[in-house]
Write a structure and sequence with these properties.
About 15% of the residues lie in helices and about 30% in strands. The protein contains 7 helices and 19 strands. The longest helix is centred in the N-terminal third of the chain and has 13 residues, at about 45-60.
């Protein structure tokens, strides 16, 4: 299933649903309120909730509780996850790319000493989330806005110290993530061996358009990834190129308790603006389209 969160424009009601390829079905309406309106609560309800949702979709009658794109406001599939855990430099080719960046702040970080004893990363504030199609403004404090296509791993049930072999049992599905970054701020933070505002400002976390459940994906570690800026392909890779796969990431990050709706990102492949010899940073009017095989396309316009 392609699970979604959205607001029904006519009533202003927020709900969860399923995108069928043509329409958005309101699962709360289809089940007479038996399912929760909040995606975190839905995921926490486990297999029983998923089974009920599948049955409701299979039995859906015509236009009952069905909406077109024009009738809804799409939200991020998990509008308010408890945690967003970013994995750093998980594509070896992106780490290689980082070593060529010329700003003194980047060079002082010592990318050649980056280790892979275990995954490393940082947290992002859930308040930064925006939906697919929602425009983001360039923050007033940066002149170097950049993109990064990633895959988001959405946790489906509480996980604590799970092994890689059992990790997928705790995954609800995958989504597309665009790690929008203020590179000048990020570089200065890296020089001080910290990171926060360069990756965690309002609008820096577009993800969606939906949460695709595992049964529709197959091999979660073999998905083509492609990002286009104004129609031009900038990033082109495959999940098989990650240093740590999905199972290994879930296992490692479960050393802190993972809860339903938490998101782990896979890191980004090379091809970001910062890696260009003469970077042309994001500007109003730009359109970013991040596509991942079987997961759809996440659309992010840059607006005034």
């Amino acid at each position: 299933m392609k699970l979604v969160s959205f607001i029904i424009k006519e009533s202003g009601t927020q709900t969860i649903g399923v995108f069928t390829g043509e329409r958005y079905l309101d699962l709360v309406g289809l089940t007479d309120g038996a399912l929760p309106r909040d995606m975190n609560a839905f995921l926490a309800a486990g297999e029983a909730a998923l089974d009920k949702a599948q049955s409701a979709v299979a039995c859906a009658d015509g236009n009952l509780c069905a909406y077109t794109q024009e009738q809804i406001q799409l939200l991020a599939p998990v509008p308010r996850p408890g945690k967003i855990i970013h994995t750093s430099c998980n594509f070896d080719a992106h780490l290689d790319e980082l070593t060529t960046w010329q700003a003194p702040e980047w060079q002082s970080h010592g990318w050649g000493d980056f280790h892979f004893e275990h995954p490393t990363g940082f947290l992002e504030a859930p308040s930064c989330i925006v939906a697919s199609g929602e425009g983001i403004q360039i923050p007033r404090f940066t002149r170097q806005l950049d993109f990064e296509i990633e895959v988001g791993i959405v946790i489906g049930k509480t996980a604590k110290c799970v092994s890689p072999e059992e990790a997928l049992d705790y995954v609800a599905g995958l989504t597309i993530f665009n790690d929008v970054s203020a590179r000048d701020i990020q570089a200065r933070e890296h020089a001080n061996k910290v990171i926060l505002m360069g990756k965690s400002f309002d609008g820096s976390c577009p993800f969606g358009p939906w949460l695709v459940t595992k049964d529709e994906i197959g091999d979660v570690n073999n998905l083509d990834m492609k990002l286009r800026l104004n129609g031009e392909v900038r990033q082109d890779s495959n999940m098989s190129q990650t240093h740590y796969n999905v199972q290994q990431l879930v296992s490692w990050w479960s050393e802190m308790t993972l809860e339903p709706g938490d998101i782990i990102t896979t890191g980004s492949p090379p091809g970001v603006i910062s890696g260009m010899e003469n970077p042309e940073w994001l500007k109003p009017g730009d359109l970013i389209e991040a596509t991942v095989e079987k997961l759809g396309t996440l659309v992010t316009p840059i607006i005034e």
